[in-house]
Amino acid sequence: MQSILFFIIFCKLCNQNVRIASKECICEMEELKIIEMVQQGNTQAFSHLVEKYQDIVFSIALKVLKNREDAQEMAQESFIKAYRSIHTFQGKAKFSTWLYSITYNTCITHTRKKKPVTTQIESIPVSEEETMDATSELPQEERSRYLEAALKMLPEEDYTLVVLYYYEDQSIEEICHITGLTESNAKVKLFRARKKLYSIMNDLMNKEIYSPQ
Predict the structure, then answer these.
(1) Euclidean distance between CA atoms 6 and 8, whole angstroms
(2) Which of 92, 138, 166, 209 has the most CB atoms around its CB within 10 Å?
(3) pLDDT of residue 18
(4) How far apart are CA 13 and CA 49, in angstroms?
């Protein structure tokens, strides 16, 4: 079953000729019914979802990774992950939001494995209160070291938002499109993630300063 799925996804992402339902047919079908069919073991039904969402999934992957080959690979991986975990989808959120979340998390995980985040600390704006933190007097190299360490300690959602906005240069609108968040929610979550990042940085520095030698 998995080999058939892999073949369908691989061929579609490579723009090869595979006979599956047209987008017009997909639009006429109840999406939840298709999902239910897949959950019951109908592998071919999943091809309808691949057909409907393959362009946007690839687009999201390309925006995050900025490399067509990597984007194609991670788009394929995202569909495979979605298929393997589709039994967990309960319809509480839109299927598209669920799928996009899988996609950008897959891409972010790939990014973390492939290269370290080297965001310059100046690219993350701070409030007046934050400029008085324990790192404000440090040389740039030292502050960057604390930043990278703190980023790795953020929860996955916070890390993703910070990286997408400051490291991958995604706009709030693009982040909303990728994550399914509303604009106001994305801004609030990003603000809180930034505050949490600086709090972790301060904690790391204080522990290093006051730890017994």
Answers:
(1) 6
(2) 166
(3) 41
(4) 13
Q: 91 phi and psi, to 5 degrees?
A: 80, 10
pTM of the model: 0.56
Please report, rounded to a whole number, the percentage of residues in the chain having pLDDT higher than 90. 21
| Token couple for 139 | 């040389």
Q: How far is CA 178 from CA 22, 173, 183, in A?
A: 24, 9, 12
Instruction: Give CA angle at 95 (162, 44), nearest 5°.
Output: 125
128-157 confidence digits (pLDDT tens) = 445 445 555 667 677 778 888 888 788 777
The CB density around residue 77, as the number of other CB atoms within 10 Å, is 18
Residue 103: both structure tokens together:
């996609």
Torsion of CA 105, 97, 5, 35, to 10 degrees: 150
> What CA–CA distance (Å, rounded) separates 69 from 77?
12
Radius of gyration of the chain (CA): 21
What is the separation of C-alpha 137 from the centre of its chain, rounded to a whole number of angstroms? Answer: 33
Backbone angles phi, psi at 167, to 5 degrees: -95, -45
Residue 120 burial (CB count, 10 A)? 12
Domains plus CATH for the chain? 2-114 (1.10.1740.10), 121-210 (1.10.10)
* Type of residue at 88: T
